[in-house]
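R.M. (postdoc): so does anyone remember the format we settled on? I'll just put the structure tokens first.
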């Protein structure tokens, strides 16, 4: 069979080198199929009649990566009562709609960390097959929770047996090392890329406290060891200091939220090379918008207890040298608004360059895809965004991305 050469040339006015953290002027990206074949210098002779994409007036950056999304959720429907009303298919419908919004916002890769079994896996597969548009997805299953924990449905009558418990193997609720091990293995069986575990209580759940640990150190260790044995990374939702400490000591790869990390947590995270993924935009949305659609007082009060502290923790942890990757908890706020968080990352201690690195090269490292995404060099996917204004001068310009390419194909161009 003849090999049809599908080479295109992208002229980049300013190409952001996400590893070095600076622009290169006038580079030419040679793209073959979905990947970058080479990056050539200014004045590279492009063959006559070749396909050229002219971004020579633009700032060209690697496609952005969000390490904490819930594509199958809806931001205006937090109420757990919906679990009793909705069919499982709603998650898939949400996922199809939200995947497109996310890609259009310039996020060409996401790590999706919590969805009904196994909506994110199906979404990933269908996007990879080209059946529906969306970002590359590193998919988890349901977030694993203790009984009565952040991932359980609490404060209902004991007469109500949620459909989440069709039998004892619901992929989500697990108590004790043996159940945790079995649940991780069961998720791996259904082809998740990553495990998500709920190490502490949460804000948007009922009847629990973000500051309080839920899993024990030995349960977390079993989860991490089982995931790693299967070649999967594991992310832990942890707001409170003790749950963060136990997660790090258990060998978890990233701490999600990390809101109330203390100095010892920060020291341990550095020592173990554990990433913090801190969703520091959400506080705005939860306090300003969520009450309008009836978020109960219990959750609003819990948010007041962590929101601003989390931003201060972000500042301390970054200053201390903790590794950080961009993650927003997309789905808490409306899908596609992911880049609103950059403003706060800069306000609370990162330079714009560092914030973009957190959403490109460092995010790729955390999700284990450094060879594929996060930088625009030979061998990587041709996943990129282009902007008319310089995000290093004004980070907020990332909230409206006019040009998106994923795998060498233009998926959006409104320049
Ligand atoms: N899913 C998280 C929880 O319910 C959201 C926390 C959002 N608040 C924040 N300040 N980051 O715990």
């Amino acid at each position: 069979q003849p090999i049809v050469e599908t080479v295109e040339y992208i002229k980049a006015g300013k190409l952001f080198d996400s590893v070095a953290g600076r622009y290169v002027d006038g580079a030419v990206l040679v793209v073959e199929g979905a990947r970058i074949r080479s990056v050539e210098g200014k004045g590279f002779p492009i063959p006559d009649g070749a396909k050229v994409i002219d971004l020579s007036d633009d700032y060209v950056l690697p496609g952005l990566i969000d390490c904490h999304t819930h594509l199958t959720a809806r931001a205006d429907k937090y109420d757990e009562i919906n679990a009793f009303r909705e069919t499982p298919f709603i998650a898939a419908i949400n996922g199809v709609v939200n995947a497109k919004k996310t890609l259009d916002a310039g996020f060409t890769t996401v790590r999706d960390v919590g969805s009904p079994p196994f909506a994110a896996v199906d979404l990933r597969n269908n996007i990879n097959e080209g059946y529906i548009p969306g970002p590359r997805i590193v998919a988890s299953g349901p977030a694993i929770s203790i009984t009565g924990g952040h991932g359980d449905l609490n404060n209902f009558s004991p007469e109500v047996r949620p459909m989440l418990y069709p039998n004892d193997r619901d992929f989500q609720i697990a108590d004790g090392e043996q159940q945790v091990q079995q649940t991780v293995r069961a998720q791996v069986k259904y082809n998740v890329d990553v495990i998500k575990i709920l190490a502490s209580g949460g804000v948007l759940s009922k009847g629990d406290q973000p500051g309080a640990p839920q899993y024990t150190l030995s349960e977390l260790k079993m989860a991490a060891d089982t995931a790693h044995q299967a070649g999967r990374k594991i992310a832990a939702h942890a707001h409170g200091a003790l749950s963060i400490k136990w997660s790090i000591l258990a060998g978890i790869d990233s701490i999600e939220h990390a809101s109330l990390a203390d100095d010892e947590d920060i020291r341990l995270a550095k020592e173990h090379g554990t990433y913090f993924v801190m969703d520091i935009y959400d506080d705005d949305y939860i306090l300003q918008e969520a009450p309008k659609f009836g978020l109960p007082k219990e959750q609003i009060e819990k948010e007041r207890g962590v929101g601003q502290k989390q931003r201060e923790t972000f500042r301390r942890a970054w200053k201390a040298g903790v590794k950080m990757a961009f993650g927003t908890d997309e789905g808490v706020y409306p899908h596609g608004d992911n880049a609103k968080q950059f403003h706060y990352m800069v306000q609370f201690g990162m330079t714009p360059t560092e914030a973009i690195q957190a959403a490109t090269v460092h995010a790729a490292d955390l999700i284990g895809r450094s060879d594929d995404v996060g930088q625009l060099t030979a061998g990587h996917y041709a996943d990129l965004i282009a902007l008319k204004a310089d995000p290093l001068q004004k980070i907020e310009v990332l909230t409206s991305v006019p040009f998106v390419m994923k795998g060498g194909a233009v998926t959006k161009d409104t320049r």
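R.M.: ...and that's the designed sequence above, right after the tokens. Also worth knowing: The chain has a mean pLDDT of 95. The CA atoms of residues 75 and 322 lie 30 Å apart.
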